[in-house]
Structures are given as structure tokens and as C-alpha cells.
Fold this protein.
Amino acid sequence: MSEPSNISRKPGRPRSVEAQRAVLEATARLMETVPVRVITIDGIAKEAGVGKPTIYRWWDSKCALVMDTFLATAAPKIPFPKSGSATDALSLQLKRVIKLLRGRSGQIVAEIVGEGQSNPHVLEEFRRRFFTQLLAPARAVIERGKEIGELDKSLDTDLALDLIYGPIYYRLLVGHQPLDAKFSENLPKRIVLALRAAQ
């Protein structure tokens, strides 16, 4: 598992790094087997074989730890291609996101958002960590497409991100339609038509 990029590390402290990794791996194991709402710092500490002060050295809440764990496991599964057109990159990554969210990862996102309905801190962490870290590469691809004329230069990038990912989270959270293979094929095609510059 890769480590969250927003955590400062002290040089010459291998045990500290090992403990941090143990906490992330323990959290990941718990997230795979039980709902997010029942996970506790006590439970994570017991699973990781560390004390609670060790966890609070890097994370100020269970929510922050869950977010970092999710990002560390999810981000490597939905990379953007390093070459090719902007539309091809968006289409491929979009299919990867849909595939990821079909499984337990999608349930975890839904559980986090659900917990956020009664805890504003959870939603704030979700927006700050999830959207900032996972959508930053998509934003860069869109801006590149606009610069080279592949995408509509007048396109509002924030609106484009909503158009691209909004339908996925709508289906995930509302559940009125599945995140199936047909959706995975059709959505990228429609998104590309909406974003592409007029020929």
C-alpha cells in the first residue's frame, strides 16, 4: 500500500514508518470487512498492534485515517494514461473509476457520505481529501485538452468535472441504476461528445 502524500515523515525513524504502515493496513482490513460507521480508533489500534497515541500522531480523527487509507488503496487503481489524447485519457480513467466503485470501494464511499449526513467534519474531510487528491489529475487533463484545442476552450473545468463524475456518484448513492458494463461503455462516449471542441 502506498502511503498518503500529506503525512510528514521524520528521517531516521524506521519504526515510526513501520507503525504508520501497520495502521494503514489495519484500517484497510477493517474497511473491507465491516461498515465504516462501526470502525473505531480503538479497534484500529488493536488490529494494528499499536497504541492510540501512535495513531493520533498522524491523524486527528477516524475520518481522516479512513480517507487516507481509501485514497492510498484506490488511487493506484484509477490512474490516467501518461500519453494519448485528453479524451482518450478521460474515457479510460472513467471506466476504471466505474469498475472500482462496483465493488467494496463503492460501498465504502457510500458509507462515508452517509456518515457525513450527521457529521459535517466527515463531509469536509471527504471534499478536502477525496475530491482534491483524486480529481486533481482529471483537472490537469481537462486543462491540457483546452490548451491544445481538443476540448472546448470556453469549458468551465469545475462544471466539466461534475459532468464527468456526477453520473457515477448519482448511481452509486441513489442506486436507481447499476454501475454496469453498459454504463461503463456509454458514459465516456457521451462525456467526450459534450466536452469536445466543435469541429
